[in-house]
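Structural prep section.
Before we set up the soaks we want a predicted structure of the protein with NAP in place, mainly to decide which crystallisation condition to try first. Input record follows.
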Amino acid sequence: MTTVAAYAAPAAKAPLERTTIERRAVREFDVLIDIKFAGICHSDIHQAREGWGEAIFPMVPGHEIAGVVSEVGPGVTKFAVGERVGVGCMVDSCRECDNCKAGLEQHCTGTVGTYNAIGKDGEPTYGGYSTHVVVDENFVVRIPDGLPLDVAAPLLCAGITTYSPLKQWGAGPGKKVAVIGLGGLGHTAVKIAHALGAEVTVLSQSLRKKEDGLKLGADHYYATSDPKTFEELAGSLDLIVSTVSAPLEFGAYLSLLRTGGALVNVGAPEEPVTLPLFSLIGGNKILAGSAIGGIAETQEMLDFCAEHRIGAEIELIAASEINEAYERVLASDVRYRFVIDAATI
Ligand code: NAP
Ligand code: ZN
Ligand code: ZN
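Run finished without errors. Recording the tokens verbatim:
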């Protein structure tokens, strides 16, 4: 066991504060990572405030981890000391079920979350708002050389969560793809959908971030507060990805799809939504969900992002600014991901 510095929420809704936690000694297949950067995902806030239900405290959030390997266990074959690596939302799974065998570890009932979870050893897991983490090599991915670690960190959740549904639902040349919400996930979705060759539309609450959206790769930008948006775009889109952290009127958005089009939701609001089912029946619409992505797909996404020079747009902060950053994320005042410099922890 090693004692390391971290930022933790001591209780639900309490501000995060500096503390120390124990990291396990490196086991046979473990990798010790010196964390360099950790992104702040809106999911960290949902969990630290117990918005998704009962949580484990003290909680060290953070599942967008980028760092450098500083020690490996004797059985490790995939990584060597000095390599640049990342860890996302999972640190273990059962490894035997159909989901695990299919590379869909995120759907395994035995998945162990990077934080706010209990590991197979019965100990709570602690996330990336920390200086070091010990992770089994099978849940570590390589960050390609072309990707700086600070802008790569958010890809470990925001990147894979948007890459996976965009690929699965065929975003590419000739496809009209819209992204609802230009936050951490949304801005990554815009960059990836553009790189995949799709015609990209941003659906944001206002036109405040229009200039940014177009620079990120969007072809069109609309305010959802303007009822004319829904008239103009009616029946025109092939695919919509919703990254919104609050309940949304999905019925209105489904009306923007062409016949047979799909709205894939990745947002995880704390409250349920209501849905007029006629918005699905007319036009044979599809409403689907998507959860992060598997480990192999996460590596594929990082390689794709490196090839297309895609990193997150970040605001680098000191750990002492985490609570302020949380408030700004809640106010949709983020351009476009806060990333903690682990050297300040
Ligand atoms: P974020 O940076 O806060 O972005 C969310 C965006 O949604 C905001 O920037 C805002 O965009 C829009 N929005 C916020 N409140 C809204 C409201 N009341 N009505 C309409 N639009 C609103 O959050 P994030 O980190 O991207 O995460 C987004 C959601 O995805 C969270 O719920 C998170 O927990 C979830 N998530 C899910 C997965 C998964 O595997 N499915 C993975 C990661 C995160 P505009 O200002 O442009 O309107
Ligand atoms: Zn996340
Ligand atoms: Zn499994």
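Observations: The chain has two domains: 2-157+311-344, 159-289.
Flagged for discussion at group meeting.
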